[in-house]
Amino acid sequence: VSSRASYSFTMSEGRIYVGNLPMDVQERDIEDLFYKYGKIREIELKNNRGTIPFAFIRFEDPRDADDAVYGRNGYGYGDSKLRVEYPRSSNRGSGPRGRFGPPTRRSEFRMTSNYTLYP
Q1: 3: which of 14, 46, 49, 70 lies 20 to 30 Å off by Cα?
Q2: Which of 54, 93, 69, 55 is nearest to 10 (CA)?
Q3: Rounded to whole angstroms, how far apart are CA atoms 10 and 86?
Q4: Is the pTM value of this prediction over 0.70?
Q5: Alpha-carbon dihedral angle through residues 81, 87, 88, 94, given to the nearest 10 degrees
Q6: Starting at the edge strand that comes first in sequence, how are the strands of the sheet with 40-46 ordered?
Q7: pLDDT averaged over 10-residue windows placed end to end, the chain, 119 residues
């Protein structure tokens, strides 16, 4: 595993995100694509009208999730390439988030413009 962050996601949950799925995808199609990586505990397919379908898959063994991300990210399926990665956040509400991106860092220290220049 390349980084501690991805290690903690996979070891704690074994859950992955699958995006860019075809509009007519069924849960069975997802199972067919990922069963070879290990025993699947749960498939959560989000297929709302007007949006591109996506899914979350939870494997029994978190190492199988690693293999699935490595093996299926960018995989050609239908007319598109699958996006397979770890979920962005496994613990919702874990801290302040900027409008886009990771949680913001705040400290008690602030920059001020009260300074004197010496020649």
Answers
A1: 46
A2: 69
A3: 8
A4: no
A5: 170
A6: 40-46, 54-59, 15-19, 83-85
A7: 46 85 94 97 92 95 96 93 87 45 53 58
